[in-house]
Structures are given as C-alpha cells and as structure tokens.
Structures
1.
Amino acid sequence: MLAIENLGKRFGGVHAVQDVTFAVRKGDIHAVIGPNGAGKTTLFNLITGVYAPSSGRIMFDGENVAGMAPDALARRGMSRTFQNLQVCMNMTALDNVMIGAHLHLNQNMFASMLRLPSVRRADSACRDEAARLMEFVGVGAHIGADAGQMPYGALKRLEIARALAARPKILLLDEPAAGLNHTETAEIEALIRKVAQSGVTVVLVEHDMKLVMNLSDRLLVLDYGKMLAEGTPAQVRANPAVIAAYLGAAQADAQHG
C-alpha cells in the first residue's frame, strides 16, 4: 500500500528526517514512535504532501507521490487527522463530517444555484453517509449537535469520521489519543481496530505505548530523524537500541525533573 524509500527532509542545515525506509502492507496498523523531536510529524507531513521531500520516494499504490499536493493525495485515497484538532467549532458535527466528503460530490455551480433535484439527492445522500460515519465512530448521540458543544474525546472521533468521509484507502492518524483519559483512549483503540477491520490501512503516530503495542501489526521507531528499529511489537520491545533510547530519555527527564 505504502513504501517509503530513503526519504529525507532538510530544513537548512537540519536533517529532520534522514534516509527513512519502510513499507506498510494493505490492511495493517503500522505505528511510528519515538521520543519528542524524533521527526514523526515531519514524516507524516512528507507522506501527506504538507512538505516536499529533499530526497527519496513515497510510493502509494505503486505510484511515486513525493511532493504531490494534499488534495491530489486525498483524491488517490490518502486521508489524515492532525495532532491539534482541526474541527470547525461554528458548524454542526454533521456538517464537519460532510466536509470530508466534498471530493466525491459532483456538483457544478449552476446546479447548486438552481438547487436541481440531482443536487438535493446528492446532499441528502451525503448527510445520510455522514450520520452513518458518526454512528460508526461512536458519536451518533451528537448528530444534531454543534461541534462546539461536544466533549474533547468525542471531537477526536468526529475528526476520524470526517477523514473516513473521504473514503480513504489509507488513514494517517497523528496522536489520536493525545489529551484523552483512560476510558477515551480505550474507545479510540477500539475504533482504530474497527477502522482497520473495515478494510482501511492505518498508519499512526502515538506516544501511548500501551495503545501502540496492543494495536500495531508493525512499528517504526525514529530517533533524531533516523530509523532506530522496525518490526513487530515483540521485536521492537526487545531491541537493545530502542531500550537504550527510551531509557536514556527517561533518565534525562528524571535528572531535569
């Protein structure tokens, strides 16, 4: 589904991502982990077209999409969420999800102005699909609500519903459990598993190691923009380089704490 080959990104003299290579199999849940500043979000931004790479290739469904614009990637079946909520708080929850479906709405300006029957049917079908996705992610109780009235944990799942409205082949989740309590994290974990079981390949950046180890088929570990390890959760957990990097980070935190 996705093959990253010798990917690199420089910002001036800083190598934010350096010679990263890994592959994501169709249907898998593939996690990217590492200490703060390891290059995880930069890697996501490269894959999803926010940044153009300085070197390397990004093969998505057999096509090199490196440097392609986010909207072009979305049309090819790549969708993402962001670490910080990107929800329109002045809109209804349902309208937020409908925004995600705009790529699939074939409406021209004159048809929209005249409110032709074909446009009304498309709008109705889009609303029905948005409501179905809200039920799917577990926020069906908020279908009639404004987004600004929803609790934070529900908004995180609303974002996933909006990303799914674009009908992706692959979904990239940036810190989906950030800021959630224990119960909400468990709900997100169950939802991500449900998304993968529905046939959508998932790549996630996440700090919650329990969630990552429970969910992931494979993990990529980054450290200072370089690959430290890659493999199954069991392989990564037992990797001496990973243990050293994480223990080192924990010791440094303890000294400065």
2.
Amino acid sequence: MNLCKNDQNSVSNNNEIIYFDDFSLGNLDRSKWNVEITGKRVNHEQQAYIDSSDTIYISQGYPGSSQGVLVIHPRYQPGFTTQQGRSYDFVSGRINTRNKMAFTFGCVSARIRLTSGMGLWPAFWVLGSSGHWPICGEIDVMENVGEPDWASVAIHGPGYSGETPLVNKKFFSNDDLATNWHIYSLECSATAGFIFRFDGELIYRVTRPMVEFYGAWVFNDPKYLILNFALGGTYPFKTNGIRSPYYGISEKTVQSIQNNDIKMLVDWVKVTRME
C-alpha cells in the first residue's frame, strides 16, 4: 500500500488519518504538541530551545497556505542562560508529539518551507519512544543545513548512528528550491522498511536487510514526531567548515537571524495508518 506517493495535499487520500494539524487554531495546539526546553547541548549546536511565542507561533497570510502556518523562528539573544547554567547567543524552537501521538507503521508527512543561510539546521524527524538514542531509532524525514538546493534523509540506530551510511540527498532544481513549499514524507513498514518522498517523488528506499547489515532493526516500537530549528553544529560544519563567528554559522547568517529573516514554516503535518 502506497500511503505517501499521492499525498499532495493535507487530506487528499483515503487512508485512515490518525493525526493531523493544519495550525488553524491561531495558537499552537498543546493537546497535540509538546514544546521542548534545552537541557544538555548536543551536536555542538549553538541555540537554546525555549518555550516562547517569540520562537514558536502561528501566523496567517503566508503565500501558498490557506490556513494558519506554524513558524519556528530563531532569534539572536546574546548571553541567554539556561536553567543548567549554559550560555547561548541564539534561541529557537523544538516541538514533539511524545505521549500525545505515536505511531508504529504508516506514513508521516508535512508541508514545509525553509529559508536559506549557511549554518541553519531545520529538521522534520521521527524518534522511537523506547530506550536511549540510538537504541530507540531515529528517522530523518527532512534535514537541511541552509543550502537552498538540497535536503537530506537518513536512518540512525545501533551500529549506524552519527555518520550513518543510510543517508541520501535530493537536489532541487533552480526554479523549485527548498525555499519553496515542499511535502516531505516517510512511509514506514515492518517488512518493506522505509520509503522517503519529496513531493511524491521517490528519494530513497531503505530495506530491512540494508539496516540489519549494519546493526539491529529497532523500528517496531511506537514513534513520535519532532519539528525543530537548530543553528550551527556538526552537520552544518561538516558541510561549510565555518568555525567563526559561531561553529558552523556564517557571519551573513548571523546578520539574517538578527534581522529576523530566518524562519521555518510548516503548513500542515499528517500521519496516516498502515494496515
């Protein structure tokens, strides 16, 4: 059963929808989403995640969307100190569905529009509910490091985490970059493995034997969704090699954040069940 190929709008197919949010309430629906607050630093990222309407809010009137749009908006806030005593110059947003919605197999999809800037790291991903990372399993439906002409997908688990061999990129055409609206989707099956699509186009297929060549299959447990906007860190740095003014972030990108030009827009998010 192909759940994602024809998923070109929010409610177009006939499969059972078990989760849907088009952000039409005017505020983030806290019955569907948790807002995360920074604890420990990971991946050498340069932002603190906070629960604030400055960094996570719903807006109306964006071209290409008829409903409300979720905006994850990184901000420059030098000297921000977390409850753990860590200091950051940037704050941003991260939300998840843990303990509010979980699925085991099916299709997850979201319509997302990005902005460009060297060192940005927005992502739409899935994490297993059981155990610590990477034993819980991670599926990256969309990652981007601020370069407008490509986005990537990946699988992480025991024996294939971090520098995972299970990764692929989609390069966009010059007239349809990541700064336009795109539907990013993942079909997850116990037998077929994973199928990644951008706008219905097959981007990458990962079979269970491919996973088990590197390590254990850990994807039979419930999973939850994450949307976040990181800044700098390991993945951007590996792409751009920038160390200053911030690890993985260019001076031009810092200026764009200061000018409030950097945002991740999410039109809708959906999960459909696989029988």
